[in-house]
Write a structure and sequence with these properties.
mainly alpha; Growth Hormone, Chain: A; about 0% strand; globular
Amino acid sequence: MTSTANTPQAGGSPAAPEHLAHVVFITAAAAMGGFLFGYDSSVINGAVEGIRGKYDVGSATLAQVIAVALIGCAIGAATAGRIADRIGRIRCMQIAAVLFTISAVGSALPFALWDLALWRIIGGFGIGMASVIGPAYIAEVSPPAYRGRLGSFQQAAIVIGIAISQLVNYGILQTANGNQRGKLLGVEAWQLMLGVMVIPAVIYGLLSFAIPESPRYLISAGKEERARKVLAEVEGEHIDLDARVREIQLAMKREHKSTFKDLLGGGFYFKRIVWIGIGLSAFQQLVGINVAFYYSATLWQSVGIDPSTSFLYSFTTSIINIIGTVVAMVLVDRIGRRPLVLIGSVGMVIGLALEAWAFSYHLVGGKLPSLQGWVALVAAHWFVFFFAMSWGVVVWVFLGEMFPNKIRAAALGVAASAQWIANWAITASFPSLSDWNLSATYVIYTCFAVLSIPFVLLFVKETKGKTLEEMG
């Protein structure tokens, strides 16, 4: 017997583990890294025009400053798995919290454009680490019957971070009388927007001291007694702890510390499962979702909406993002991962195609025609909803579950790095592409959403209800 905490009840649904509330707290604390991920990623939305004005830069240079954080993200994601295997998941979270804090302070008080970019790279490294450690840690402490829903906490925290950043930005902008360069507390409004992140960064660091280390890491470090205590906390005191430890040990004996070489399939190419993880990560970004969170205020202003209203629309979009994420959390363990992403892909195709149609019309008096303006606004919210209730959540769940034990850490790092690289490509290219042809830009995103459908149908397998040890 490996567990009794999650055995089905008479009605057929799994029994709640004895300490589910404690597991939820642990998961939520770990997902605070996701909150910072969302906050740091989208807070720049409110600072774009302020940075452009202060440093008098064009779209191409501005895009590089906005996107440069993603290079740090890719590096952090690629190295986080190895760091976590060496020093533990909790220490990795604490390093990320320190990096977030340094980045927030530096970004709020830059000397010039070059050091603003440097602080954003440092923050990006922290985001990349959190993007890998959060899903991995949550998957390792979650009871199998609840792992999908608990794994969704990462994305829930991301979208809440996005929403809070937009709300804070809106509040700061209103206080500064609608001027991103207005003076507040001795700095310009956009600087204060970036500096506020120091508050959640410190909270994340403090919470990391209140949660236990992953039982799998503890067993790998020879700390079996501590691992038993953690397993009792998260899976219940009535499970057969010795059997559960042996199950994890047996799985670990079949593996060794994963390295980049382990991901290769006999040559200079990745194993099939690694390519699938890379594909999921890339498609999640190539549909253009982060345009909605990095550039939405600028986008709406470009089609004639005033700054305060554009910030309000950025906030309402982030609320839709939260609603979609809640829908995904409810459904991910009920209907499965694959059905959700397929539904989401169809919905995204519709929303993106409508945005492309609306933006194809010429501005009249500096604004889109009334019908096209409303279609663009509704379609943008529609697109974000279908992304949030599918790819936004499920890709993180997939990446925490789909890889065999012997390559999980390294494969997760590579897949997450691919996600950040795709994110960088979209973020760095959008300002120049939109200057060229905004409608055609959205046609490109629509094509990627269309291609995601056969990709899932042909290559992605369902992971619902399987233990991590069953993955190989």
